Amino acid sequence: xxxxxxxxxxxxxYRAGVVFSDARSLRDGLxxxxxxxxxxxxxxxxxxxxxYSGDARHRADVVLALYETEPVVRAVLDRCEVAxxxxxxxxxxxxxxxxxxxxxxxxxxxWAQPTAYALECALTALWSSVGIRPNVVVGRDTxxxxxxxxxxxxxxxxxxxxxxxxxxxxxxxxTAKTPSVDLISHVTGRLITSDEAGDAEYxxxxxxxxxxxxxxxxxxxxxxxxxxxxIGPAALPGPEIVxxxxxxxxxxxxxxxxxxxxxxxxxxxxxxxxGITEAFARVFETGQAVSFKGLFAGESRRRISLxxxxxxxxxxxxxxxxxxx
Length: 325
Description:
Blueprint: H1 2-8, H2 23-35, E1 47-52, H3 60-69, H4 71-88, H5 92-96, H6 109-129, E2 136-139, H7 143-150, H8 156-167, E3 182-184, H9 194-197, H10 200-208, H11 213-222, E4 225-231, H12 238-244, E5 256-259, H13 276-285, H14 292-295
Parallel strand pairs: 1-2, 1-4, 2-3, 4-5
Helix pairs in contact: 3-4, 4-6, 4-8, 6-7, 6-8, 7-8
């Protein structure tokens, strides 16, 4: 039913997303929408920014569930596993999945930085698979490496190599390309230049000399961003972004701030979801063109008959004038 509604029906401007697991939760979700004060607002797709947290803390069961059910997540993490093995001779997935012997290693930057990078690149690929790609990217602290990879500055494997070398204070050999989307520097708070992107010293400064994140928020607002998607296993500081948004003080609107795995830190969260489906629904509500085929990648679905659109069907006939002329 969800596949048919998502892939075979038009998605209009007034929309609501309901996440459900069975008939009862669907009924409850639809009832909540129907009884909400006022109607869902009109969605107008605006600029999307991906904000990378750079935090490696995560729930291993949530990531494992995504790895087992989402082909694009599995492909990215498998590539990182191979590259990390060639660089360090160790298993990165042991840390990602919390296997025996990996306890406490995320306290060491030599493990935490490449782990955060791999997880965030996997989430970027997952969003891309459902049709959501950023207009702007920004990375907080070490998250700027994953942001740069999303902007096409360097490849997945090159970025992983940078994160591993930088964490171990090794030398960085950077061969970077011009960003394909706007990339905000966490050193300057402004859009990164091509010279900065290709400078190995810049990426070291990025760790040692970060500017207050508020400077980056100002640039997001200047670029006209309307939706901020948090990319990372830790929750994005949504209230901080909203409160610091410069147009709020002038009566403007704050952006929609949506976490990819905003509930993953909650021990009560279903490991089979981790909040990602809820995030997809919230982005859909902002008017973005979510690819529902991507939501069901790797699954076998078929089209079924569903009720038609509930048009009001009011008559607007002009009554005949019986008077003689």
